[in-house]
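Reply to dn_fold:

You asked what the input looked like. This is it:
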Amino acid sequence: MDMGADIGTVAVPPGRVTLSDRRTRRSWPVELGPYRLSAFQVTRGLYARITGGGTEPGGPCRAPVSEVSWWDAVRFCNTLSHRDGLAPAYVLHGDDEGVEWDASADGYRLPTEAEWEHACRAGTDGPRYGPLDEIAWHRGNSADRVHDVGGREPNAWGLYDMLGNVWEWCWDLYDPEVYGTYRVLRGGGWFDERWSCRASVRRRSHPTFRVDDVGFRVARSSA
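and this is what came back:
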C-alpha cells in the first residue's frame, strides 16, 4: 500500500472497553459497535495531497504528519470525505466556533477515545499489545525523531503505531468542567518515556495547538 497516497481502513469488531483517568481516579465502561480505523497514522504525504498544501516541507512523505491541530484534523476528515464521495461527518461553524458530528454520515472522522483504546488493545487486557520495543517508537529507541509509519509490529487487528511515534487526536473533550475545550490525545510519541506509551494513558491539548509529536488517524462508522 502507498501509505503516502491513500487511506486503508480495517474493520474493528464491536466490544466493551473500560476507560480510566489517573488524575481523577475515575473509570467508566463504554459499549462499542463495529467501526473502521485506518491501519496507519495519517502521513505527511497524504496530508499534503488532500489539503493541497504541506506540513514540515522536505520531510519524508511516509512519516506521520505532525504539528496539526485538532481543528486541522477535523477539516482534513471532511476534505478526505469529499474526495472519496462520502458524506462529511462534521458540520463546521465559522472561525473555529464549534463543530457538530453527524453520526449518520459515512465519511471520515476522528475516533472517539473509547474506539481508540478498544482498537489499540485488540483483545488484550495489559498495558500494551506487545513488547514495547517491537511495537512502538519511543524515547528509548527513536533516536529523538519521528519514524515512517508501519515500521514496528502491528497489533492483532492489523493496526500499526497505536503506541508511540506520534500522539493521536481523538474526538472527545478531555474534561470540560476543568479544561474547557481541550481534546483528548492518546498513544504516546517518539519523545515519551516508556510509561506514557500504554493503552490507557490520556493526555490533553487545546484544539488549536500544533505540537511536533502530535498527529492523528481516521475512523469511519460502519453501516
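Residues 43 and 64 are 4 Å apart (CA to CA).
Hope that clears it up.
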